[in-house]
Design goal:
Length: 234
């Protein structure tokens, strides 16, 4: 079994008097240390699927197994604990805390989610600051650095808990083209260094080419899977 196994996932929402089928019979597997993109137009189900993988929501039917755990069976508190132990998140609007420095933003998950001794916290944060090229910016606040630098900080923050998996929802949406490529290449570098699986969603066809496995969603259905070096159906 892979790091992630989705088995016949359906997700339905009630919006007013209307039932919305956000995902329909979606199945796939993702291996450890993968670099995977889900693509498709707005409303295709990309964000809903990332929310299910990230334990922010539960499927209406089917099974979502992440790191050996059927996350759909967890209650709200169990899901929060599982996320803290296994999953990092990168957001398109960075979600950095404006009142904290770069260093403190990266350290924050270790204070909130995992009780890590001060010496180990310093080692982890310092190591990641160097890895993402932000050591010389550690004392600045988010409003003093560029968009690309903010996303570097967000990548470091996502990795500081040593997660098995990092989810990135439209991580390059607010970046110019060159900076977007830089950020994706940094994510690949971090994948190679930490053996973390990265899963991201994107509309940007130019950026899609950086993924090693591409799953296409349309109207809540998985309509195809492409792997670098070959094509398949999924």
């Amino acid at each position: 079994m892979g790091l992630i196994s989705a088995e016949h996932i359906d997700k339905n929402y009630r919006v007013g008097d209307v039932d919305v089928r956000a995902l329909r019979d979606v199945s796939f597997e993702i291996s450890p240390a993968s670099f995977v993109s889900f693509i498709g137009p707005s409303g295709s189900g990309k964000t809903t699927l990332l929310n299910l993988i990230g334990c922010l929501d539960a499927p209406s039917s089917g099974r979502m197994i992440v790191a050996g755990t059927d996350v759909g069976t967890l209650d709200r508190g169990q899901r929060a604990h599982f996320r803290g132990a296994n999953i990092g998140f990168i957001f398109q609007d960075f979600n950095l805390l404006s009142v904290l420095t770069v260093y403190e933003n990266i350290e924050y998950p270790l204070l909130m989610v995992q009780k890590i001794p001060p010496g180990e916290r310093r080692q982890r944060v310092t190591s990641l600051l160097e890895a993402v090229g932000m050591a010389d910016q550690k004392d600045k606040n988010p409003d003093q650095i560029s968009g690309g630098q903010k996303q570097r900080v967000a990548i470091a923050r996502a990795l500081v808990t040593n997660p098995k998996l990092v989810l990135a929802d439209e991580p390059t949406a607010n970046l110019d083209h060159d900076t977007a490529y830089m950020v994706l290449n940094l994510m690949k570098k971090m994948r190679d260094e930490f053996k973390t699986t990265f899963i991201f969603s994107t509309h940007d066809q130019k950026i899609v080419g950086e993924a090693e496995i591409i799953h296409t969603l349309e109207d809540g259905k998985l309509t195809g899977t492409k792997t670098k070096g070959g094509n398949g159906n999924g």
